[in-house]
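Database export, one record per block. Field names are fixed; values are copied verbatim from the stored entry.
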Amino acid sequence: MGQNKQDDKIKAEEHQDQRIEQIGQLTLDKNDKHQDIHLLSIIGEIEGHDNLSNNSKTTKYEHVLPQLAAIEDSKEIQGVLVILNTMGGDVEAGLAIAEMLASLSKPTVSLVLGGSHSIGVPIAVSTDYSFIVPTGTMVIHPVRMNGMIIGVPQTFDYFKLIQDRITGFVCRHSNINKEELEELMMETGFLTKDVGTILVGEEAVKHGIIDEVGGIDKAICKLHELIDLKSQ
C-alpha cells in the first residue's frame, strides 16, 4: 500500500513537471483554504497563427484558449492566477486571450513580473484585479506591423481599427481614460527612435492601468479573498 502511494506521488509530480515544461501551467491546490487555483503563465512572445523559431520562448494561444474553456467548465478550479513576463506578440492572439480571461466567471488575478509589454497590456488588465512588482515594466505603444504593407488609406484605417480595439479594451478593464492612454502611446521622449512610454512598477498604478504594486504573496492572497467573496 505504501509503495503504491509513493508511486502515485511520483507520477503526479512527473505530470506536474510536464505541464510546466510544455505549457507553463499547473494547479495550486496545497493551500490551507483547500481552494484549487489554476496558474497560467504568459511568457516570452505571444505566438499567433505563424510558428516562431524553436529558439524563442513563446506562449501559444492555441494552448491557452482551450485550457481557459476547460477552466470555465471545471467544478474543481475556483480561481485563476495569471503570471506575465512577455514582450508582447501577435495582436489577434493576445486580444483573444484577454477576452477569454475577461469573460471567465471564476475570480482572476494577474501579476506582472519582469514585463508585460505591448499586447501583454490588455492581458494584464483583463483580470478582476492586477498587480505589478516594483521593478516590473509595461511598454505602451501604438500598433506595429512587421513585413511589407500596402501604403494606401485603407491600410492606415485598418491600423486605426486595431488600435481602437486595443485602447477600448484596456480602458474598459482598467482605470485609465482613452485620452491619457493615447498620450502615453504617442510619447516621443521615452523610447529612442520610436514612440511610446515605459512604465515601471508604481507608475503603472499611478496611471490607473494596474491596480496595485505587489508580488506573488499579495496576488495569491487577493485571489483567495475573491474566491471567498464569490462563495458567500
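Remark 1: The first helix runs from residue 2 to 23.
Remark 2: The chain has eight helices and nine strands.
End of record.
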